[in-house]
Amino acid sequence: MTDTGLADPGPTARLAALRASALAVYRTHDLPTKPGFYRKGPRAKRWTRLADDLDAGARWDLIRAHAPDSGWRYLDRDRLGEAHEAEEVREASRVLVSCTRLETALEGAEGTLADLIDLALSLPAVPPRG
After folding, report:
1. Among candidates 3, 2, 34, 39, which has minimal Cα distance to 19?
2. Are residues 39 and 13 in the same domain?
3. Phi and psi angles of residue 95, each rounded to the nearest 5 degrees, phi first
4. Does a structural domain hold residue 1?
5. Which residues contact 31 (CB under 8 A, 6 or more apart)?
6. What range does the domain containing 62 cover?
7. DSSP label at residue 96
8. Which pLDDT score is estimated for 37?
9. pTM above threshold 0.85
């Protein structure tokens, strides 16, 4: 197995390390790092975090309050960088979304699925060169 430099080489620790790296990229590009749902107005420079107690219905009400072409955007923190001009930010967004999906899968995973996720996370990002 590849040495990750982690004291705990398990999938949860590796996902946490990947998330921390992706959030460092967000921080460098002045994007929010706190989990949550955000909105950005057409003239705004920064994303604004919505209250944690807003349920899905309340969020939809906010979205519907503005015409689709009005320039308002609403996204979960993990997706804020997906259309960014910097490739590293787009990649950080992809990593955040993937980490969340894998963590969700691990929460209910038993046996083989957990082992497969662990195996996938142990593979190097770049294939070995011969």
Report:
1. 34
2. no
3. -65, -45
4. no
5. 47, 80, 81, 84, 89
6. 35-80
7. H
8. 93
9. no
